[in-house]
């Protein structure tokens, strides 16, 4: 009997010890370890440098950077498990809105840190959370811009000028095509890269309040996006042979290698292009969507915001890191390395590459990304990608409407 | 007898506990949540069968089912044909057959994701370059970027990787057949083809059954290959059900809805496996 008991106890302890194997690691040698979660592969090196600096200033804090692929899905999975990272560096989009509504993020409203941010960007992220939860659950940090990037050498070779209207833009694409060169290098194997043109077009054609109206049932893609779909289909004609087969990383290398004149991307692609070809001369301009130059706005959004988990055990240390990131020197370093723009007052991007969009930032002809306000489960980028292959406009716009409503009604 | 029982209990209880905690319990939780409107966090209410009704109305789920079954059936047939051929080859008396067996098993050891990324490179750069060099128009574009052909790329990668495991199972089956049978058949004047259909194939029937069932089940749950190769694109042309459940459940905040989808899929896989077993067991030889 006794033997049996011990054997049973042995078996149980064995099971328990196996279970204990997956407990989290705590602080080592008196240091506090914080996890910094980032959704950008582009900024890994920059963050590594900043973390080194921070750790030198704060020897008792260690920061572990985690930048997985499919980051948003990973983050949602961890939310489900109640295992949020201490600090998050994520985009100001629908996912942030959801995290904000779920009440798992620290509220920064009224803090000194939030006051250093340009108010328009605070409004932008508050709109994402919606009226249900009052508060600012993140600090807008870096902002981005959708732009047409062009290869200056080729641009001059073809005798082009920066277009101010849609017709002029198409004329320059036509000119390049007629000369036997590739006008635009598309990278549509990665569905999200199709959303860049889509957002520029949608923001300027369908207006900024489209999503609110769509949720209220007052408008639809059928009604507002007809022209957008046509213009998308037009643009794809000026691509290359393998529009659908090239991914983003390969596209950056190809454009850096002079494979095309234009490249529809955002400022975030510029460091990647320069990595592949450091001597390249680049220029940017906002895509001229309409034929009235005064109507054409630049699409810019919150590319990176810093959020702190509400339930973290090391709030004080996490706040220290947020303060470090928000100070002007760090912010300047970040935007210089990442070729981004800062959401913090008084920190400016002075790189000559951005000559073509500087004016938009100065006089405020800026509008936000339409797709940041789409319901997250809709998978709009794959629908757009499908449309660019099949070109069945009616069916596609209907599907955009029905998918939106379907996700809303679940 | 008593002593034996207690030994069994000591061995099975921890295993059962571990299995229950990490497998059965989450599965039961999933079934429970499929009747609610839980988003993956926050509050929830019971909604009855609403999620299940929505799955049947969901076009995207329908497309995912079609793609997954098309993929799984083609891949299962290919894998079993190829691995049976390879196994027969490796079972014959050739030089280095032990080394060759090890080499053929290598793809199975590699991580699917890594293999996917390598093939991604092959499809994106290597094959188009060959196409350009030889002027073969169909090869000059990345097939993963074509919605009608992308699934073939995934089949190629999945089959390449899965053949090794099934080959091992078939080899185990071939070893059980005694040489005497073949010798007797040779004396009776049977050719290679006759030997295969009359002796080899009937005698490895149990292995054929298990291979068919396992590979169909694995291919119905295809996930990693797609993430590494196409991410469900172009459009939604290669979105498998597992991918849809994962994406919609975590990215789209449809945790409960996709749980319902998963429960339905679980039932579908069970039904298919049972039908397969019943059908294939009938043709196994009674030893």
From TrEMBL, chain B:
Residues 65-276 form the ABC transmembrane type-1 domain. Keywords: Cell membrane, Membrane, Transmembrane, Transmembrane helix, Transport. GO terms for biological process: transmembrane transport. It comes from the Bacteria. One of its GO terms (cellular component) is plasma membrane. It is found in: Cell membrane. The keyword Cell membrane applies. The keyword Transmembrane helix applies. It is a multi-pass membrane protein. It holds the Pfam family BPD_transp_1. The chain crosses the membrane at residues 7-25, 64-90, 102-127, 149-175, 196-214, 262-280. Belongs to the binding-protein-dependent transport system permease family. This is ABC transporter. It comes from Cytobacillus firmus DS1.
């Amino acid at each position: 009997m006794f033997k049996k008991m011990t054997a049973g106890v042995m078996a149980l302890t064995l099971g328990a010890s196996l279970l204990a194997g997956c407990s989290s690691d705590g602080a080592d040698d008196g240091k506090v370890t914080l996890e910094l979660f980032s959704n950008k592969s582009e900024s890994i090196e920059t963050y590594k440098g900043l973390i080194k600096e921070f750790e030198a200033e704060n020897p008792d804090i260690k920061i572990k950077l985690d930048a997985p692929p499919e980051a948003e899905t990973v983050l949602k999975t961890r939310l489900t498990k109640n295992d949020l990272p201490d600090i998050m560096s994520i985009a100001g989009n629908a996912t942030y809105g959801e995290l904000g509504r779920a009440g798992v993020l620290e509220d920064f409203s009224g803090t000194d840190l939030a006051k250093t941010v340009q108010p328009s960007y605070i409004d932008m992220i508050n709109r994402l959370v919606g009226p249900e939860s009052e508060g600012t659950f993140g600090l807008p940090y870096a902002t981005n811009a959708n732009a047409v990037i062009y290869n200056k050498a080729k641009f001059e070779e073809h005798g082009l000028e920066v277009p101010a209207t849609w017709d002029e833009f198409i004329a320059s694409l036509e000119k390049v095509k007629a000369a036997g060169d590739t006008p635009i290098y598309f990278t549509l194997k990665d569905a999200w890269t199709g959303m860049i043109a889509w957002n520029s077009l949608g923001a300027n054609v369908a207006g900024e309040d489209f999503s609110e109206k769509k949720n209220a049932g007052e408008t639809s893609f059928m009604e507002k996006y007809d022209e957008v779909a046509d213009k998308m289909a037009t643009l794809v004609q000026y691509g290359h042979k393998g529009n659908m087969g090239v991914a983003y990383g390969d596209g950056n290398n190809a454009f850096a290698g002079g494979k095309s004149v234009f490249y529809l991307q955002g400022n975030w692609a510029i460091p990647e292009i320069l990595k592949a070809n450091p001597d390249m001369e680049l220029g940017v301009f906002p895509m001229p969507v309409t034929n009235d130059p005064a109507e054409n706005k630049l699409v810019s959004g919150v590319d990176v915001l810093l959020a702190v988990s509400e339930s973290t055990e090391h709030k004080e240390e996490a706040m220290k890191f947020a303060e470090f990131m928000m100070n002007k020197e760090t912010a300047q370093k970040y935007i210089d390395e990442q070729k981004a723009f800062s959401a913090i007052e008084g920190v400016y991007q002075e790189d000559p590459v951005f000559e073509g969009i500087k004016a938009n930032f100065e006089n405020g002809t800026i509008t936000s990304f339409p797709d940041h306000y789409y319901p997250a489960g809709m998978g709009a980028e794959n629908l757009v990608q499908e449309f660019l292959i099949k070109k069945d406009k009616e069916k596609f716009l209907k599907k955009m409407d029905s998918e939106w409503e379907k996700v809303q009604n679940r | 007898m008593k002593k034996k029982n207690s030994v069994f209990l000591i061995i099975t209880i921890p295993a059962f506990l571990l299995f229950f905690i990490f497998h059965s319990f989450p599965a039961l939780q999933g079934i429970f949540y499929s009747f609610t409107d839980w988003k993956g966090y926050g509050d929830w209410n019971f909604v009855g069968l609403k999620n299940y009704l929505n799955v049947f109305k969901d076009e995207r789920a329908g497309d995912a089912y079609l793609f997954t079954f098309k993929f799984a059936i083609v891949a299962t047939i290919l894998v079993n044909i190829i691995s049976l051929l390879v196994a027969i080859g490796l079972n014959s008396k050739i030089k280095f057959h032990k080394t060759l067996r090890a080499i053929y098993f290598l793809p199975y050891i590699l991580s699917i994701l890594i293999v996917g990324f390598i093939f991604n490179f092959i499809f994106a750069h290597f094959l188009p370059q060959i196409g350009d060099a030889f002027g073969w128009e169909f090869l000059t574009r990345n097939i993963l970027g074509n919605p009608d052909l992308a699934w073939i790329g995934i089949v190629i990668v999945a089959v390449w990787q899965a053949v090794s495991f099934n080959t091992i199972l078939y080899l185990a089956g071939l070893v059980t057949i005694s040489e005497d049978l073949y010798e007797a058949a040779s004396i009776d004047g049977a050719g290679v083809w006759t030997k295969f259909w009359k002796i080899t194939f009937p005698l490895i029937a149990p292995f054929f059954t298990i291979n068919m069932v396992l590979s169909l089940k694995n291919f119905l749950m295809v996930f990693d290959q797609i993430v590494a190769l196409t991410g469900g694109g172009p459009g939604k042309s290669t979105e498998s059900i597992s991918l849809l459940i994962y994406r919609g459940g975590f990215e789209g905040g449809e945790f409960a809805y996709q749980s319902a989808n998963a429960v339905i899929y679980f039932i579908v896989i069970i039904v298919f496996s049972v039908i397969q077993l019943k059908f294939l067991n009938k043709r196994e030889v009674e030893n």
